[in-house]
Design brief:
Radius of gyration: 31 Å
Distance between the termini: 75 Å
Helix content: 55-70%
Strand content: under 5%
Largest sheet: 2 strands, antiparallel
CATH class of the largest domain: Mainly Alpha
Number of helices: 6
Oligomer: single chain
Amino acid sequence: MTAKEREKPQRVAENVIASDLEFELRQFVQYGEMVDNALQQRNAPELDYDLCQVTFRFPPYDFWQTRVRTGMRTGHGGGFPMTDTTTKPDTTTVPRYSPTMIRLHWLTFILVVLAYIFMEFREIYPRGSDGREFMKATHYSLGLTILGLTIARLLVKIMSGPAPAISPAPAPWQHTAAKLGHIAIYVFLIAMPLVGWATLSAEGDPVRFFGLEIPALLAPDKILSGELEELHEIGGTIGYFLLGGHALLSIIHHAVFKDTTLIRMMPSRPAP
């Protein structure tokens, strides 16, 4: 066999590999365009709060290495399978809380954050200064506002009936833990303002709600006021963990478990 005859099968194999690689590259461009179009469609307003619900899974590197080395085709489009691995629910059909409940929830959230800010940053002013008194008075007024909003939320919750279902459904123990957590939060949001109101009353100081004086809950008692103030401070520390844990678990449910726990409390976007 001459050298030219020995080189012929090698050239044929090289041509097959080159042809197959060219075919795969064309497929890659084609599917790249499909990916780009799909991602552009994800910007549609009806997708609500989800950023991108479709994950495109391409074959690993060793798959391509094998395909090119063997120079064999496995069929049209076989090189670039595109799999929709969506696990998040369609947010356009998620049952949500009523708009009133959602507004009360987020308004309460904002006021609680502000109440903590005014409580913590009062220390930047010296005792007895006008700035410190303003921070304290605003903290008290915000607390009483939270008390009113929490009572309103309870009434709306009772009238609204059962909470919207979570999808996918959590384990029974998670459902029980969530109920206990919500009860603890409601107790906290009601008890803390009441203890603060009672503390001011026991100190003999006027209780004002944004400048409007309101009746005292207790007769002046310096010893009792000190005990109530200490209880209020302990409750504030517990609140960091209770409310912070509630927020963290909501994020975990949304980002890790990919259920509708958080989405239920998000306002829905109007139809375009």
